[in-house]
Structures are given as C-alpha cells and as structure tokens.
C-alpha cells in the first residue's frame, strides 16, 4: 500500500472512530433506564466488532472477486494508470452479509421488541434485496427490472405487517379533512378533529413505494468514489440521532412506551448498519480500491426503508433524503426517456488538471454541483456532497422539532 493511500485512510479512521464514540455516547445519555442502556451497549459492541470484520473480509476477498472476473474500471480516472486498474466489484456484498448475520444474532438474543414476526420479515426483506442486488450486478439488468425488484423484496414485510396504517395530518388541513369525514367519512379519519387519517390499503402501497424509492434513490445518486456509502453513513447517523431523541421518556407523546419500542428497534438496525458501512467506506474512499455495486445500494435503501417503516418515522426519513429527492427530480427527463440517457451519467475527467468537470447533458446532482462550483478534485467533490447531505439532514431535524413544537 502506498504512503499516499495511507495518508488518505488516516482521516477516515479518525472520522469513523469519532462518529462511533459520538453517536454511542449521545444515545447512552438519552437512554433513561438500565435495560435500554444495556441493550444499546450490546448492539454497540456488536457493531464495533462488525466494523473490523467487514474491513478485514473485504481485504481477504478482493483476490477472489478479481479471479471470478467481478471487477470494473474507474471511468473517472480514464487516461491515467489508475483508470486501467481492475477494481473488484460488487464488494457491497460483504457488509450486507455481515449485517444480515448481525440481525440473526440480535434476533437470537430476543431484540425484536416482542414481535418476532416483523423482525423476521425485516431480515427477509434485506436478505432478498441483497440477493437481487447481487443478481443485478452480475446480470446487468435493465432499468425497468430495477423498479420491480424492491417491490418483490418488500413482500415479506407487506404480508406480515399488522401495525398502524394511520398518519398525522398537518394542523392547517385538519378542520377541512375532519369536515369531509363527518359528511362523507365512512371511517376515513381516526379522530373527530381530523388529526389522524387511516390510509388502509394506501399505507401498504406507500410502504412498497418507499422501498422502491430508497433503493433506487441511492443507486442513481452515485458515480464517484465514496459517494454511495458516504451518503448512507451520513443519513444513518442522523436517523440514529432522531431515534435517540425519541428514546427520552419525558417527551410529551400519547404512547411514550410504544414510541420508545419503535425507535429502539430502529436503533438495532441502524447502529450495525453504520458500522458495516464504515468498514466498506474504509476501502471505497478515494482512491477507491473496491466498488460497492448495486448490491450495496439496494441493501442500504432497503435497510432505511425497513427501519423507518417498523420504527414509524417514514415521513421523517424522506426529509433526510432531500439531496436524493433533488437528484431524482432533476434526473426525471432522462430517467423517463424524454431526453437521451447515457449509460454512465458521470462528470468529465480532465487529465491535464486532474479535476472533474460537469456535463450539462448529464442531469444529476453530481454534475449540477460541478456546473455551479466549477471543476473539482474527485475527493473534494465527494466531501462537498457529503457536507450537503449533512446540512440537509441537520435542517430536517430542526424543521421537525419546530413543527412538533408549534404545529403538533
């Protein structure tokens, strides 16, 4: 390993250690009983072990992937020696496999909040999505199949889900909805004030669509070293903070015990997810020695979807996905064939300046940022996009707090 590579990895090691200590200490401070604290420490300890496990096994299986012909070349370094190197892909299979094993261990020690069936369904969805993602990497499926795969993978949860199908309406439209329900209702609204609305079958459709969006939103917001796994780490950290805030027993909620159960379940999924992603990020950060592949994007998206659905914060999750939503909306003309859509909508690499330059005809957020800022080094661009992700997630937490305070 070269000295420059070692220097690039040192900040990542510091970042990973700092994030783990910060998030775990924050959660432990918010946990208000010994049982919850013990549970978090157990999951946290398993997560730390999983970080080193993923990092070690990725190094071990790199030769196997190359021998099997599972590799690609870094298009963003085309014209340089690095652009001719074979980069093993899809190494997202390793963290996904370790993560599934962790869920099995947590299931074994009864960390399923009293509903083993839903926990099993979540594991099945993540496992199914990982398998389909690996199949996509190997078979190179068409885009129309990529929209169907998450629907298939979410079936175990949809079949076993027996939770609430109600959503809380904003205060400004509650009187209107309540009036409609009182005159034409038929059981549409769960309260006279119109605060709750029961979506019924619509909620199941919403869960399926959320699974499709989360998996594909990460998949199309990609193309530079570290971006796919980096954005997942940032979002998972903010989801964890959101879960930690809702572990407090002194917040004014209708059913604080049930709320804490839901968010504790989400923590069980998010803490190991952060750890395995950091283990992958260690190898995928610039200059990337492995590619994550569609396997990781599908695995990460399904994990977010399952955590938010079973943690009952799916609306808040969409606030954390604001950059992905912007990227999706901006990409719509090409995704739907209105404008020509090249296979790789990557920036243009300038060999002379060693910078990436935005391409106007490639409609995604990566190129849009480059068109606004001008040419950037790939590592700088990735860091900037991750800062943007963190800023959007921070604003999401602030806006949610303000909404709950002034518009409960």
TrEMBL record:
Q: Which UniProt keywords apply?
A: Endoplasmic reticulum, Glycosyltransferase, Magnesium, Membrane, Metal-binding, Transferase, Transmembrane, Transmembrane helix
Topologically, how does it sit relative to the membrane? Multi-pass membrane protein
Q: Which residues cross the membrane?
A: 12-28, 40-66, 91-111, 118-135, 147-169, 176-197, 203-222, 229-245, 265-283, 290-311, 317-339, 383-403
Q: Quote the subcellular location field of this record.
A: Endoplasmic reticulum membrane
Cofactor(s) required for function per UniProt? Mg(2+)
User: What family is reported?
Assistant: Belongs to the glycosyltransferase 4 family.
- InterPro entries, alphabetically? Glycosyl_transferase_4, GPT
Q: What biological-process GO terms show up in the record?
A: dolichol-linked oligosaccharide biosynthetic process
Tell me the route in metabolism or biology where this protein functions.
Protein modification; protein glycosylation
Q: Which GO terms describe its molecular function?
A: glycosyltransferase activity; metal ion binding; UDP-N-acetylglucosamine-dolichyl-phosphate N-acetylglucosaminephosphotransferase activity
**What is the name of the protein in this document?**
UDP-N-acetylglucosamine--dolichyl-phosphate N-acetylglucosaminephosphotransferase
- What does the entry list under GO cellular component? endoplasmic reticulum membrane
Entry-linked Pfam families: Glycos_transf_4
Principal place of residence: endoplasmic reticulum
Query: What's the stated role of this polypeptide?
Result: UDP-N-acetylglucosamine--dolichyl-phosphate N-acetylglucosaminephosphotransferase that operates in the biosynthetic pathway of dolichol-linked oligosaccharides, the glycan precursors employed in protein asparagine (N)-glycosylation. The assembly of dolichol-linked oligosaccharides begins on the cytosolic side of the endoplasmic reticulum membrane and finishes in its lumen. The sequential addition of sugars to dolichol pyrophosphate produces dolichol-linked oligosaccharides containing fourteen sugars, including two GlcNAcs, nine mannoses and three glucoses.
Carries keyword Transferase?
yes
Name the reaction it catalyses.
a di-trans,poly-cis-dolichyl phosphate + UDP-N-acetyl-alpha-D-glucosamine = an N-acetyl-alpha-D-glucosaminyl-diphospho-di-trans,poly-cis-dolichol + UMP
